[in-house]
Amino acid sequence: MRAVTEISNNHEFSMRIRKVLQGTLMPFIAILIALAIGAVILIAANFNPLQAYQAMYLGAFADFSSFTEVLLDATPLICIGVGLAVAFRCGIWNIGGEGQFYAGAVTGTAIALYAPALPGWILLPLVLVGGAAGGALWAMLAGYLKTRFGANEVVTTVMLNYVAIIATSYLVSGPMIEPRGTYPQTAQIPDGARLPLIMPPTRLNLGFIIALLLAVGLYLLIFKSSTGYAIRAVGINPEAAHYAGIQVKKNILLAMAISGGAAGLGGAMQIAGVTYRLFQQISPGFGFTAIAVSLLVNNNPLGIILAGILFGGLSTGARLMQMNAGVPAVLVNVIQGLVILSVVAFGAYRILTMEREE
Amino acid sequence: MNSPILRMENIVKTFPGVVANRGVNLEIRRGEIHALLGENGAGKTVLMSILYGLYVPDSGTIYLNGQPITIKSPKDAIAKRIGMVHQHFMLEPTLTVAENIILGQFPSWTILNKQRIGEVHEKIRSLSNQFGLGVDPAARVSRLSVGEQQRVEILKVLYHGADLLILDEPTAVLTPQEASRLLEFLRDLAKKGLTTIFITHKLDEVMQVSDRVTVLRDGQVIGTCETRETNPRALAKMMVGREVLMDLHRKLASPGEPVLAISNLRVRDARGLPVVKGVSFTVRAGEIVGVAGVSGNGQSELALAIAGLIDDVAFDRFQLEGKDVTRRDLRAASHRHSAHIPEDRQKMGMVLPFSVSENFILEEYSSPRFARHGFLRGQAIRSYSQNQVKKFDIKVSDVSEEIANLSGGNQQKVVVARELDRHPGFLLVNQPTRGIDIGATEFVHQQILAQRDGGTGILLISTDLEEIFALSDRILVIFEGEIIGELPSDRSQVEKVGLMMAGKRDPDRE
Predict the structure, then answer these.
(1) Peptide bond just before A201 cis, omega within 30 deg
(2) Closest CB to A8 among B14, B352, B378
(3) Which of A301, A325, B398, B508 is deepest in the core (most CB within 10 A)?
(4) Which chain A residue's Cα is nearest to B419?
């Protein structure tokens, strides 16, 4: 009898260890595996991987000012990531963070450029809120197609990404192009629409703080509010949610609005805090990297802060790897792609094993 | 004659967090019908799955005909002449009986020509005649009734030459008539020398059919005895570990105003075929109306329609607590005026990865009791849940535990506790005790009766006739989507209800 209890205790213990490992260690193992594969590719291309990775590490974490660049890169990832977390928690595979980011950037820029006479204390908030609204509406389009016609959101959000990116290209090379300019870009936004720097001379601005607040706020929303309760219930078991009187479609639309709103805010803050103008390819794929950011930490907004900084470090470091170790940009992209792929595969593995255990 | 055909010694099997068998000893004599009795989660099915090679035990030995053996897979078990009929049939409906029986038997490159098929048919036919099964080898399985499909399963085991037959809760899916036919048939098989292990939690079946009975509780053998030397009350006590009320004490109902009145309710399924065909009835305050029927005769759809959870619904009139409800606001009205203990508790009644306390607030999560200024009141929810857990005697280490870790009975108690606490005027109950143990069943029944005595009108849908008769004040019989009769809830009517469940509209006429 005692032996039996010991067996079960031992088993429980090892189960718990396994869970902790899966929760924290596994994602980092996933990243290490990706870097190891990247090393093989670097060797094959006649680069010294140790040198390359050292350049990458130093580029991100060598001193404080390079670290602020990391945080700058992390800001849009955190904004889009926490938004995606809300959608994922509601069981919606919003792959449209990229498009919603563009929608927010366009709306924010438009407000900043066409209402420049407003005082800064109104203009800046208006730019940010407008950006969030633009992203929210863009996402709700996919939400509406899903709830009204049952259109698969993976397909619609991916398609809407293209629409947003191409529409932006059109706008900046036509209707919104800077007066007397030849490049496909808008004019610079007025000073009143810009996010204040918080650590001059670094480029770090208020946007990072806003992203942190957004993450905390969405954490509270998901886990502590009754709205978040309903969103999670719909995400896990829509049938039970419907049974309990929770309006499934309303919550899907709401989750999409929050999700797109956060991404749109990220887009507006990129304009108001970093680039000060809109141009083509304003995002190097933040919306896609953010999917990995959110999945890496099981869609927990607080975890997304850390994951966002980690991925910010990877991309800042990768840029420096390109500059200092002479690794061509395409190879850098390959390594970044490997990291994302590996993290997403890990996330899928976790979801699948969880389903099997149930 | 009475030498043991099988002995299982000190079988231990653990699963993550659960010990299913803690050193089980079981001895089966040749040619007997041995009942394996126990509540759900007692470890009966796990023990038999070990014997059939589906699980490998952590420790322990199995002796077959005195020889120690290891069984690594069902294929192994079949080779050792052990056969098992599962609770859920493992038949491919689009194939014929014969095709199902020989599935996987021949190497994959075998050509099944006419001659070979003919031999198979011949063998099946002679077995079927020998045991009086009445199975046609050429019949397509999808056309057979549930009872016939079960006989095909048994025939499959006999065909493969088993002399030890394991049946896992074989009567759970049968009408009373089919069940008693099965039990008779098992007696015949025993006379012909077949040994049968019969997993069940129904006491009357044990008394009716078995030679000996072994009671399992909590993964341990409580005792083995000769069936004729024991009685249901003693067995129930062994099974549950305490005295059990065999009969509920029911006060006479005093029905009041109608709380639910439906006329000509029709439901179509996803393919547009009618599944509920013009049903009309009334449920009054303070009474329990039972809906009896074999599973799959429109009960599920009827329940979902009343709860407003299904789309393709039409009716002439639908009144809840005296107010007319239109099709449009059926869902909202139903949620407001009634509580619903759903048929599939895991799919509909709860959110599995949620904690126990999160499941307690599923219906009322935004009410002022549990939320203020849009935020959940963690402390209030916690203490409320702890109260409910105590009140309903739910076995859980902490209310923050995931509900998925609870046993079926305790999960159902959470659902029942939550729904009853809404103090509904009308309560819809569908299969409230399916798959849960005697102790929890007794408790749930008492709670439903208490609710009735408090003035709630209750519609009880169940395929378990025992339950229908134990709780109902009136009984409606549903067959193929129609209510084909109403009877008083009187034990003398059991057979009549059984016949009506099988589609006889007027059983008195025979």
Answers:
(1) yes
(2) B14
(3) A301
(4) A244
Distance of CA A313 to the CA centre of its chain: 14
Residues 6+ apart with CB under 8 A from A96: A138, A139, A142, A153, A156, A157, A158, A160, A161, A260, A263, A287
Contact: A225, B375; criterion CB under 8 Å: yes
Angstrom distance (rounded) from CA B444 to CA B461: 14
Highest mean pLDDT among A15-24, A58-67, B411-420, B486-495: B411-420
Residue of B nearest to A5 (CA): B19
The residue of chain A nearest to residue B24, with distances taken between CA atoms, is A1
Q: Residue A185 — φ and ψ, nearest 5°?
A: -155, 160
Residue A155 CB: number of other CB atoms within 10 A? Answer: 14
A242 chain-B contacts, CB cut-off 8 A: 309
Residue B116 pLDDT: 81
Q: Which chain B residue lies closest to A12 (C-alpha atoms)?
A: B17
> Residue A10: its pLDDT value, please?
53
Chain B closest-CA separation from residue A224 CA (Å): 6
* In contact, A48 and A179? CB cutoff 8 Å: no
Phi, psi of A139 (to 5 degrees): -70, -35
* Averaged pLDDT, A337-342: 85
Where residue A114 falls (left for φ over 0; alpha for ψ -120 to 50; beta otherwise) is alpha
CATH superfamily of B4-240: P-loop containing nucleotide triphosphate hydrolases (3.40.50.300)
Asked if B150 and B170 count as a contact pair (C-beta separation under 8 A), the reply is yes
β partners of residue B203: none
Min CA distance, A273 vs chain B (Å)?
32
Residue spans of the domains in chain B: they are: 4-240, 258-504
Q: Residue B267 gets which letter from DSSP?
A: E
Interface probe, candidates A4, A10, A234, chain B, greatest B C-beta count within 10 A: A4
- B19 chain-A contacts, CB cut-off 8 A: 4-5, 7-8
Chain A stretch 181-240, residues whose beta carbon is closer than 8 A to a beta carbon of chain B: 220, 224-227, 229-230, 232-233, 236-237, 239-240
Rounded to the nearest angstrom, the minimum Cα separation between A251 and chain B is 14
Question: Which residue in chain A is spatially nearest to B365 when comparing CA positions?
Answer: A226
Distance CA B385, CA B357 (A): 5
Q: Which of A90, A354, A241 is nearest to B351 (CA)?
A: A241
Q: Is A63 on the interface with B (CB under 8 A)?
A: no
The structure tokens 């309760």 sit at A229
Domains of chain A, first to last: 29-357 (1.10.3470)
Q: How far is CA B170 from the centre of its chain?
A: 10
Render pLDDT for B290-336 as a digit per residue (tens, 0 to 9): 999 877 788 889 999 999 988 889 999 999 988 898 888 888 888 88
Q: In this structure, are residues B333 and B428 in contact, taking their beta carbons and an 8 Å threshold? A: no
Query: Which listed CATH number (3.90.226.10, 3.40.50.300, 3.20.20.70, 3.50.50.60) goes with B258-504?
Result: 3.40.50.300
Q: Which secondary-structure segment (H or E) carries B38?
A: strand B33-38
DSSP output for A288-332: HHHHHHHHHTTT-HHHHHHHHHHHHHHHHHHHHHHHHH---HHHH
In this structure, of A5-19, A46-60, A116-130, B24-38, the range with the lowest mean pLDDT score is A5-19
Which among B22, B350, B351 is the nearest to A4, CB-wise? B22
Question: Does this chain's domain B4-240 share its CATH topology with B258-504?
Answer: yes
3-state SS string for B286-329: CCEEEEECCCCCCHHHHHHHHCCCCCCEECCEEEECCEECCCCC
C-alpha B51/C-alpha B72 separation (Å) is: 9
